[in-house]
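fyi for ur records
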Amino acid sequence: MGIQLLRMKSSWDSVALAPPDQIFHLNQLYLEDKSTSKISLVIGAYRDDDGKPYVFKIVRKVEEEMMKDHLNKEYLQMEGDADFRAGAKKLVFGDDPKLLERIVTVQALSGTGALRLGGTFLSYAAPKGAKIYISDPTWPNHMLVFKQSGLTNQAFYPYYDAAKNALNFDGMMGELSKAEPGSIVLLHGCAHNPTGIDPTKEQWKEIVTLCKKKGLIPFIDLAYQGFATGSLENDAFAVRLFVAEGLNIVVAQSFAKNAGLYNERVGAFHVVCPDVEIAKKVFSNIQIDIRGMYSNPPAHGARIIGRILKTPAYFEEWKEELKSVSERIQKMRKLLFDELIALKTPGVWDHILHQIGMFSYTGLTEAQCTWMKEKHHVYLLKSGRASMAGINTKNVKYLANAIHDAVANNPKKQQAP
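which gave:
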């Protein structure tokens, strides 16, 4: 006689299976793929020309120096490492002491953690129930981060013109012009993810004017400073323009991409305040937010960046290395474009050259992306977003042929007039 075992009712029976994160799930499929010709254009992490993860030389140098210093493992203050915070603030906003004294800067758990801190702060500092406007498309994690930080009233503004592979500036401005005063507008400071399309300087001026006129709260996600154009100064243009025009903005800053510190989780959250007294109040509240989330941030990565930013010779080395990294990606854009033109691949591909930063919105359809994955072992998001860092001189011809084959066998459907 068999014994039937009955499972006791669990407290977790009501928990449903969550869908996988599309980016990490696709990357897992790539890792499991046994093909020797496979290519990943999925994860936004820089690779060298051999397709290997790249550790900045200046980071290695500073780490070796720090090892000799025998630094302790004591807790940092809630707001983080002092050298890091001072350097990160100047990197974004410049070195005007009168301005810097009214900007609150705290260390965060990379860009994602900075966004989360920002969302939490705005959930009580912005008008109750304030709507946050997010570009369509955007980094997929934005919506989840803001939802979990209390910004549940989310709306979207047009950003990408699929027909022209360009910025839909009129659509963007038209939607934001309808926003209520006190609404929050999430803007990508440079190297828009996923499109690689940024407003021009003149368009940024119009965006600033609109935010000022409407009384909107700009929240700038600055994840790629120095990675877009190769210049830290150029890539801070939009942030500094908002501040110069007197807007009280918030900024999420990351050192994952521009210093290659992906797994060190190094970032900062900044709040520009009208005066020092308000800055003190804001700082005290964000300290409480940090205490309730994780108490204090990790030290290692912040110490690396802090030392680079406060040491002039190291800072110059970092800038040169960052420039070379940015230039390699620009070179890969040109090589891919040239290969597609040589193959006479159907369509227009100029946008690959004009987009900037780590990503390209290729214009490939979901069917074409699926074709590339299943037939050629080339992995990119179904939206057609590709990480240009995954391209190198050894795989660019194979990639171009895969794109050509996918486009030729899966032509886009013509839209009815």
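Residues 283 and 313 are 32 Å apart (CA to CA). thats all i got for now
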